[in-house]
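ok so I'm stuck.
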Amino acid sequence: METVFKAFVNQIVVAKLVPVLAAYFVLKATLDGAAGENPLPSIIAALFLMSLSATMQLMQGWNSGGQYATTDMLTSLWNYIVGQIMPAAAGLACVGAVINFVRHRPWTRMVFAAISFLSVSGLLTLFQAMAA
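replied:
not stuck anymore, here's the structure
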């Protein structure tokens, strides 16, 4: 039963249904833009759908299949977020702070957000050391 479900998800949903839905959202974004509406929600939905296959493969690689597979997945997900996503978010916050500074808008919140994004892994290590 498990192999049938995996085959259905991989061969039908991911391989055939997801690209069609992503194409629909690209078409919807084009029509929204032509009508003068905001196309960003449709663009984000299309990008999410197109990254679904790679995300599935990434998480399947993290699955150890052992007794502690759930904790292994959560640990790998946390390490990915802290090592890949947070530094990128900190860089974007710095860029936003510079843009706001040039436009004479509040920029200090973005600087503090960038600092906090970069200190997440250090705080986790500190909390683990305090708990031990």
